[in-house]
């Protein structure tokens, strides 16, 4: 069963039934007809779970898979990544299609007005009687069609933003503006019973400090009772309730729940319409779901195990709206392990916060606790085994604090607790992910305070830098494609460390960074001479380093900004990039397992009576079990990796890296002219290759899975970086690195990812790209014929497919069209480019038509039922496997062939002369025409 972010242990057995439930109540929402759910109908198949999880922020390659989930762009170098569809976090739709419950009787505007009226919110204007939602207002102003997928999604966004507004400020209560709601719980069932606010100290603590003048204080009875739960007052019962953030949020949600009933009583005829009835049901269910989160402390802080539930005073006062408790119980009664603490201990954050406060204590310029911590033997222990990365995590003093993680690979119980259940919906996974991210953000903030204070303390700064460098140097194996996870630190550990480094690097000015640092004799980072360089062999590197070290005056003493910048750069290489690769591998595994399960189920008639039936059933069972684990693992990774704030900071830092590299090749940056100096600067040639590769890989990842992050002020730097190095291929030795930069242009193409259209427009209108990009891409199209890799035969088709797609888009730009025509008429690359285009077309048509022929033959055999049944089962399975393979190959080859033929169409329409000359061009075209005619 699934739970939401950290909830407390069960209360004493003597507490009332509902109290026992609501101390650690789980967040379970139902299907669209009831409460929205992370675990809806058990009848939903496992495949549906994985497909729904894979749907958001991704692009798939396989068309068959796309019919079930949103597509993903596969970054494999193989040939099977040709069929690309666009994706979006929220589906674009016509207004009439926004909600399945909409009808001709209730317009969308009327439904929105009803939602705003009941929830007392607005995204259009600020008023004292409503809560203004700035984030939602910005979304509606930017693109109203993409704000929500249906009304249920919108209601969830409204409630979450309203509640998060309350949690973000200790001294401000966003619900206080609701002046018309002087009584938070209307229609009290028992007038002689009253709720009284008391300070949390009298109730054994509260997750948040009390908020003076809060919504709760203004709408409930004024302070009167103290101490216990009840006090007599003029013959009426008085119950105490904590004055805290949770009370403010709970008051709001309970009242919104009750407002639905009031609306139904005021306008019964209108509310009986199916569309309105469904809308009101969604509001009720979302209020319950978010109340469950509040009662757990998931949005603020988990309550102590023995603290009574915040709901108890309302229950004893019998002041809750009708149906509230029933709905809450219905949502949570199936959760058997709801109160169990999983992962870190309940007091983990308290201990971390206490350590952060201790480190802030100082006398004069000295932080005594920082001195004490760094003097401990386990501050930075010496390595004892080959697993140095895992050692420093387990043995160092701060290792345990940095180990907080939501990744399933670090702790499988995380997925079991938060993302298990019969089914998982995207909406509720997003809510849980946001809560986990909020929890991580808070803990990481304390980690930053600890390390920042140790660095501020002059006596301990050296120890802090040595520890930070040790974390990086002992985890260099995390960058390998095949890594033994037992020898390195966990993903969660490295991501927490990265977060802290990003905060430390935020105010660094690039002018203070010494680009020669990684070659400095006092460099703390271990960069092997065997590390692949951008454009230098090992001998070149050793010779240049020897020359450099002969003159010590070329080096300046390393300063903190320089050391922190390069530590952060290498930390990105060892944290966010490995996490991105693992995320992509997991998505492919989910897709492959889905295919396997589907194939086994579709072919059940062939094997169910065979001797291999039990083996196939066992395989099907294993695949489903593995698929379930992967789906949970992906949900955890979504929370840990797809964090918008984290990804934005990564992009901003990589922008600084880009600027540093561009200044190496063009000191006049940002004023860059092409072509660059033919003499490649040695400092650039000697840089590790991953300095540029990491930028390309990260851009590929965010464009596919979180494209909204791409729109930052640094966009201009990124575009300049891509154009400069694609047009300066002699500066980078590895052709596959150039291919990755080209692939970034490909995935940002509006034909592939519509949400990056603005970025692509900046690229195609960039002054450097107008005259230089097309000839450079034509040159690379021909140069990739031979890359030296064993997979070059297939790689070249993928790369050329990317270039052809880019060309088709650039052709629509009038400035680039002129460059095309100029290159066609007098360019050096045109003839070679056309020859390669013709050769590719011939090969692709040949392979595609042959595979189509085999597909047709097998399909005809399968249509003849009698003849097919006479074949041995082994032969049937072999033919079906061949059919699947041929369909996959033909699909990819036909996609490539289509692109090349489209390019031919554009070229022959605009430039006829080269194709009419007697020679190879016209000859090859005639051969292709005869070849296709012969097959049909």
Structural account:
- Residues 398-918 form the Ubiquitin conjugation factor E4 core domain.
- It is found in: Nucleus.
- It holds the Pfam family Ufd2P_core.
- One of its GO terms (biological process) is protein polyubiquitination.
- It contains 39 helices and five strands.
- The strands form two sheets. The chain has a three-stranded mixed beta sheet with strand order 3-5-4. Strands 1-2 form a two-stranded parallel sheet.
- It is globular, with a radius of gyration of 31 Å.
- With 936 residues, it is mainly alpha-helical.
- It folds into five domains: 95-334, no CATH class; 348-514 and 559-579, no CATH class; 587-641; 645-828; 835-935.
Spell out the blueprint of helices and strands.
Blueprint: H1 17-23, H2 46-54, H3 63-66, H4 108-119, E1 121-122, E2 131-132, H5 134-142, H6 151-167, E3 193-198, H7 215-219, E4 230-233, E5 236-242, H8 245-266, H9 268-271, H10 274-296, H11 312-316, H12 324-332, H13 348-360, H14 368-374, H15 388-395, H16 399-402, H17 412-418, H18 426-456, H19 461-473, H20 491-505, H21 538-549, H22 560-574, H23 576-602, H24 604-607, H25 613-641, H26 644-665, H27 682-685, H28 690-705, H29 715-726, H30 735-747, H31 757-764, H32 767-783, H33 792-810, H34 814-826, H35 830-863, H36 865-870, H37 873-910, H38 913-916, H39 920-935
Helix pairs in contact: 2-23, 2-25, 4-6, 6-8, 6-10, 8-10, 10-12, 13-18, 17-25, 18-19, 18-20, 18-25, 19-22, 20-22, 23-25, 26-28, 26-29, 28-30, 29-32, 30-33, 32-33, 32-34, 32-35, 33-37, 35-37, 35-39
């Amino acid at each position: 069963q699934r739970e939401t972010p950290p909830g407390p242990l069960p209360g004493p057995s003597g507490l009332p039934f509902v109290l026992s439930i609501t101390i650690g109540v789980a967040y379970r929402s139902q299907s669209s007809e009831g409460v929205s759910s992370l675990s809806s109908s058990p009848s939903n198949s496992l495949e549906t779970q994985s497909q729904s999880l894979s749907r958001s922020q991704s692009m798939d390659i396989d068309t068959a898979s796309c019919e079930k989930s949103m597509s993903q762009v596969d970054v494999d170098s193989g040939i099977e990544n040709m069929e690309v569809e666009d994706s979006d976090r929220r589906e674009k739709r016509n207004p009439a299609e926004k909600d399945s419950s909409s009808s001709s009787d209730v317009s969308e505007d009327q439904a929105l007005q009803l939602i705003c009226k009941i929830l007392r919110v607005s995204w259009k204007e600020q008023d004292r009687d409503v809560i203004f939602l700035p984030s939602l207002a910005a979304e509606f102003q930017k693109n109203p069609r993409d704000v929500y997928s249906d009304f249920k999604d919108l209601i969830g966004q409204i409630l979450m933003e309203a509640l998060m507004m309350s949690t973000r400020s200790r001294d401000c209560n966003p619900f206080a503006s609701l002046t018309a709601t002087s009584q938070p719980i209307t229609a009290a069932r028992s007038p002689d019973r009253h709720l009284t606010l008391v300070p949390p100290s009298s109730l054994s603590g509260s997750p948040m400090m009390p908020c003076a003048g809060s919504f709760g204080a203004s709408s409930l009875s004024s302070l009167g009772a103290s101490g216990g739960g009840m006090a007599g007052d003029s013959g009426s019962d008085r119950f105490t309730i904590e004055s805290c953030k949770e009370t403010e949020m709970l008051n709001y949600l309970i009242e919104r729940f009750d407002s639905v009933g009031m609306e139904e009583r005021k306008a019964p005829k209108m509310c009986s319409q199916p569309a309105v009835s469904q809308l009101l049901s969604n509001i009720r269910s979302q209020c319950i779901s978010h109340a469950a989160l509040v009662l757990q402390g998931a949005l603020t802080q988990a309550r102590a195990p023995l603290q009574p539930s915040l709901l108890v005073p309302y229950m004893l006062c019998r002041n809750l709206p009708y149906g509230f408790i029933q709905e809450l119980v219905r949502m949570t009664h199936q959760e058997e392990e709801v109160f169990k603490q999983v992962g870190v201990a309940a007091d983990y954050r308290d201990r971390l916060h206490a350590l952060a406060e201790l480190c802030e204590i100082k006398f004069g310029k000295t932080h005594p606790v920082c001195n004490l911590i760094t003097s401990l033997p386990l501050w930075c222990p010496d390595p004892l085994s080959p697993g140095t990365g895992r050692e420093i995590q387990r043995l160092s003093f701060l290792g345990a604090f940095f180990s907080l993680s939501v990744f399933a690979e670090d702790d499988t119980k995380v997925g079991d607790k938060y993302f298990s259940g019969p089914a998982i919906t995207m909406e509720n996974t997003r809510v849980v992910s946001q809560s986990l991210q909020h929890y991580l953000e808070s803990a990481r903030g304390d980690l930053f305070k600890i390390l920042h204070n140790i660095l501020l303390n002059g006596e301990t700064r050296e120890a802090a830098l040595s520890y930070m460098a040790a974390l990086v140097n002992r985890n260099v194996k995390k960058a390998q494609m095949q890594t033994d996870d037992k020898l390195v630190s966990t993903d969660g550990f490295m991501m927490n460390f990265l977060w802290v480094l990003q905060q430390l690097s935020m105010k660094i000015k690039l002018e203070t960074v010494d680009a020669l640092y990684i070659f400095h004799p006092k460099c703390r980072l271990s960069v092997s001479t065997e590390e692949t360089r951008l454009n230098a062999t090992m001998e070149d590197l050793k010779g240049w380093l020897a020359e450099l070290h002969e003159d010590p005056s070329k080096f300046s003493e390393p300063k903190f900004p320089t050391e922190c910048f390069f530590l952060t750069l290498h930390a990105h290489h060892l944290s966010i990039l490995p996490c991105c690769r693992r995320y992509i591998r997991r998505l492919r595994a989910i897709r492959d397992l889905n295919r396997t399960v589907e194939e086994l189920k579709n072919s059940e008639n062939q094997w169910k009576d065979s001797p291999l039936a039990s083996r196939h059933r066992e395989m099907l069972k294993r695949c489903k079990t593995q698929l379930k684990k992967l789906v949970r693992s992906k949900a955890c990774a979504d929370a840990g990796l797809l964090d918008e704030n984290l990804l934005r900071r990564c992009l901003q830092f990589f922008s600084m890296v880009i600027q540093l590299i561009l200044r190496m090749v063009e000191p006049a940056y940002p004023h860059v002219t092409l072509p660059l100096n033919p003499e490649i600067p040695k400092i650039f040639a000697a840089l590790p290759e991953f300095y540029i590769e990491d930028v390309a890989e990260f851009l590929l990842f965010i464009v596919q899975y979180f494209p909204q992050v791409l729109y930052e002020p640094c966009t201009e730097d990124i575009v300049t970086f891509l154009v400069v190095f694609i047009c300066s291929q002699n500066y980078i030795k590895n052709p596959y690195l150039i291919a990755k930069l080209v692939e970034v242009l490909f995935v940002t193409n509006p034909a592939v990812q519509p949400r990056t259209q603005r970025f692509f427009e900046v690229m195609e209108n960039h002054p450097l790209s107008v005259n230089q990009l097309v000839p450079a891409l034509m040159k690379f199209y021909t140069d990739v014929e031979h890359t030296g890799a064993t997979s070059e035969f297939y790689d070249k088709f993928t790369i050329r497919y990317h270039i052809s797609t880019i060309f088709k888009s650039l052709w629509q730009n009038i400035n680039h069209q002129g460059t095309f025509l100029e290159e066609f008429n007098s360019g050096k690359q045109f003839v070679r480019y056309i020859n390669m285009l013709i050769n590719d077309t011939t090969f692709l048509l040949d392979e595609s038509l042959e595979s189509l022929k085999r597909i047709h033959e097998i399909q005809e055999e399968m249509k003849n039922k009698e003849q097919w049944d006479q074949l041995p089962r082994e032969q049937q399975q072999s033919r079906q496997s061949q059919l699947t393979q041929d369909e996959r190959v033909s699909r990819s080859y036909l996609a490539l062939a289509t692109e090349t033929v489209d390019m031919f169409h554009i070229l022959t329409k605009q430039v006829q002369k080269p194709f009419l000359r007697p020679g190879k061009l016209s000859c090859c075209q005639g051969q292709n025409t005869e070849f296709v005619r012969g097959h049909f």
